[in-house]
Amino acid sequence: MDYHSEFRRSIEQPEEFWQEQAAKIAWFRSPQTIWQPTDNGHGKWFPDGELNTCDVALDANIRAGRGDQKALIYDSPVTGITRSYTYNELTREVARFAGALQARGVDKGDRVIIYMPMIPEAVVAMLACARIGAIHSVVFGGFAAHELAVRIEDATPKAIVTASCGIEINRVIEYKPLVDKAIEESSHKPEVCIVYQRPQATAELKAGRDLDWSDVMATATEVAPVPVLATDPLYILYTSGTTGKPKGVVRDNGGHAVALRYSMSLVYDAKPGDVYWAASDVGWVVGHSYIVYAPLFAGCTTILYEGKPVRTPDAGAFWRVCQDHNVNLLFTAPTAFRAVRKEDPEADQLRKYNVSSLKRIFLAGERLDPPTYEWLKEHTGLPILDHWWQTETGWAICCNPVGTEMMATKPGSATVPTPGFNVQVLDPSGNQSPAGEQGQVVVKLPLPPGCLTTVWGDDERFRKTYLDVIPGYYSSGDGGYVDDEGYVFIMGRTDDVINVAGHRLSTGEMEEVIASHPAVAECCVVGAHDELKGQVPIGLVLIKDGATIAHDELEEELVEMVRDKIGAIACFRQAMVVERLPKTRSGKILRRIIRQIADGEDYAVPSTIDDPAILDEISSHFRR
Ligand code: COA
Ligand code: AMP
């Protein structure tokens, strides 16, 4: 079938379309109802189906004869370890850890927070939760204790699974003190904390609460997957919104399995036995979907890489992994290849390795800038495929549907809407924008399977943020346009979310941290363009009358505060003291104009501005 027919069918006959896709995964009870509308275009997929996500990922592969095939390869240049697990081996580990959790009272529907580095035990813990119907919430290891505390408070987990440390380039980060601090800060206290001890650091265990991973595994018995409803939550993944409180995106079991299985065929054209490598982190949505779940749903071998694109040890790291493990499909963020290109502009490292197994390279997480696209295309000679998605959707909203029909690529475009996603671009009054004209990118409801079902504990926030902005549509928060051939170009966020090295962060959250400094009267954080990381946050700060702190001392303190409260990954390194902030007459800070000034772009002075002279003052600060 060609792309256009496939897309049309997914929109015009969604129930038949998704019923067919649902038949490709293992159910305990096949769904009789495919779509159950609830309200205003929203609803539930496969409401009466029963399955187990871990069964689809592991046991079903064993039943299909893939027990001795590699399921997971762990490649860790920061420790020098490479280890692999067959489907049989991974299933045994997972079933055993599931038993260990169950023995500690963790049951269907209970939450488990996983705060771990990129080690196989993180994957085992996620799949073990799925096996017993517990809801995991993985927190990225780069987040500081306070961020972890906010998530503990919101998800109220029965258990936390962690490791003694993570390993960054030339630096060991002890996790346990962060976990202890987070539990202390949170009013909710988990009953148990299971700690995987790594040789690089030994965590102190608190009697009565903390247990050693190896001890619980030694006494655990393997358990079978428990049936859950398709609509039961599989996981909560917190993502940055426009306020300081992160949103807990809730993903269900059934829609997720069906959508990701379909995506492996359509978006990646992956076959059972293919080696699939998503060079991301299990703490992000890319890691959830394409390190852990989807490659296993499709019977592939997945790679868990504990390293960086550069400096572990050099810019040849990605090519080395591709060669060593015969990677067929590679997926990462453009920033990773910008880092490689910066250190190895002529791609000399690429020529040192045999990467002939590689068929396609996929990029997402931020806009794929045309120079990075061209560089990759020229040096690898492979199809370089941009695709657009979000934590909320869990899989690509726009892609090059290579499994159905490979479309010509256009630099800067994520290609075309993925079947299931009725993507449209609307102007400020909610009318469809003409081809080539920028507007807000939305998806006409219903969303296909696999997308968020609600925000954990706050259905009202879910509706207000995503469904009520333009009734009948999902608001993506991204701006962009569709050209006259139907290609979608995503140009960036229209809200206060920024993208730093493929990591999604909230400027509002940074503002809350900065505003808590005793010398700060008012502040604003914008994402300024950065050659390597795409964007970096820059703070503009107004000092309180009478405060005598030196400007560079204040900057240093603010940088440290953001690092301490949010984490080093925020990359907040610059805070400028200004006399005034540009505002509208109604008092709204003109963030977009500040961003344009920071990027050296032309800007139009809005008629609503309180005092246009402030813009020159701000510009002079950026020129200094
Ligand atoms: N745990 C603890 N700290 C972490 C961390 C983790 N898991 N990940 C990053 N950090 C820290 C880093 O050590 C660094 O700290 P520093 O300021 O003390 O040096 C800081 O956070 C910033 O890290 P990072 O953004 O990784 O910057 P970098 O300069 O070390 O590396 C890149 C730049 C481009 C190589 C790196 O950002 C990268 O690999 N990006 C790809 C991101 C990605 O895969 N995103 C997933 C979306 S698909
Ligand atoms: P996250 O939820 O962390 O995956 O971040 C989602 C955001 O990243 C989107 O809303 C976009 O702003 C941006 N993004 C992801 N993929 C792309 C892409 N291919 N092109 C442009 N922006 C992207």
TrEMBL record:
Superkingdom field: Bacteria
Keyword set includes Ubl conjugation: no
Pfam families found in the cross-reference section: ACAS_N, AMP-binding, AMP-binding_C
EC number: 6.2.1.17
Location of the AMP-binding enzyme C-terminal domain: 509-588
GO molecular function: propionate-CoA ligase activity
Alphabetic keyword roster: Ligase
Family recorded in the similarity comment: Belongs to the ATP-dependent AMP-binding enzyme family.
Protein name listed in UniProt: Propionyl-CoA synthetase
Protein species of origin: Marinobacter profundi
Name of the encoding gene: prpE
